[in-house]
């Protein structure tokens, strides 16, 4: 359906495999980092394994893939754009989300540093920060009507996001229509953070 796009199926936490596959797949002008895990546990029950997996995927993989792609963009001497998919959870504490909220907050700051350091190379870096999105992971973690009702009641638009809501925001940040936007977080949260 998308000519010119070739998906790579990788464990993004495996730096050696990612290095080999992504380096061979270039050159790149655009990058979207969207891999994430949500290991939901109460703060007092967070395990070392859940913490490490979340750090490896939600933060470390973004850093590593972005390094590989940005180096290629710089070597080509062409402008580029990177969009990192973060979350409203980077800005608001959620019960049982200690690790998820923390890794997404770290991702927001990483994106700002990337924007500062890659800007002179004409590479823009931004995040999209959606509310709950109705993906497979979103359905698994928000299928309980009592849990979901409490969240939806805090969203002024009264619903969770659909995949297209996030995709359209990403497309905007990748496009020339956002040519002066870097280091920003685009909230796709239905107003959750203003409620």
UniProtKB/TrEMBL annotation:
GO terms for molecular function: carbonyl reductase (NADPH) activity; L-xylulose reductase (NADPH) activity. The keyword Oxidoreductase applies. It holds the Pfam family adh_short_C2. PROSITE patterns: ADH_SHORT. GO terms for biological process: glucose metabolic process; xylulose metabolic process. The keyword Oxidoreductase applies. InterPro entries: L-xylulose/Carbonyl_redctase, NAD(P)-bd_dom_sf, Sc_DH/Rdtase_CS, SDR_fam. Keywords: NADP, Oxidoreductase. It comes from the Eukaryota. Belongs to the short-chain dehydrogenases/reductases (SDR) family. Homotetramer. This is DER reductase. The gene is Der.
